[in-house]
Amino acid sequence: MHWFGLFKPGDWLIVALGLAFCATAFPLAWRAGVAEKAIVRRGGDVFSELELSRNRRIEVPGPLGITTVVVDQRRVRVAADPGLRQYCVRQGWLSRPGEIAICAPNQVSVEVRGSKQTYDSLAY
Question: Which Pfam families does the entry mention (predicted)?
Answer without folding.
Answer: NusG_II
